[in-house]
Amino acid sequence: MELLQPFLPFSTEKIKKMLGIDITEWKEQTNIPSYLREVLPLFEKLDINSIQEEYNRLVNHSK
After folding, report:
1. Long-range contacts of 29-33 (CB under 8 A, 24+ apart)
2. Residues ≥6 apart with Cβ < 8 Å to 21
3. In degrees, to the nearest 5, what angle opens at C-alpha 45 toward C-alphas 49 and 47?
4. What pLDDT, in 10s, does the model give residues 2-24?
5. Distance between CA 8 and CA 10 in Å, rounded?
6. Other residues' Cβ atoms within 10 Å of the Cβ of residue 63
7. What's phi and psi for 7, nearest 5 deg?
8. Which helix (H) or strand (E) holds 9?
9. Does the structure show a pLDDT above 70 at 36?
10. Disulfide check for 24: which of 1, 3, 46, 63 has CB 3.0–4.6 Å away?
11. pLDDT tier, 1 (very low <50, low <70, confident <90, very high otherwise)
12. Helix H or strand E encompassing 48
């Protein structure tokens, strides 16, 4: 968890909540549950059309 924290702070918090971990340390996490409470997506799904629109906008803007 500590490795992800600087790069994905919000996702790390979501993972910690799903695993029921309050404190993370730079050591092996041995006290984890045998089941997950509620599993939710970490990221929202990107719409293919919005990707294409953003790409076109960036290409047109750079000309």
Report:
1. 29/1
2. 1, 29, 31, 32
3. 5
4. 788 888 899 989 988 888 888 77
5. 6
6. 4
7. -95, -35
8. helix 9-19
9. yes
10. 1
11. low
12. helix 48-61
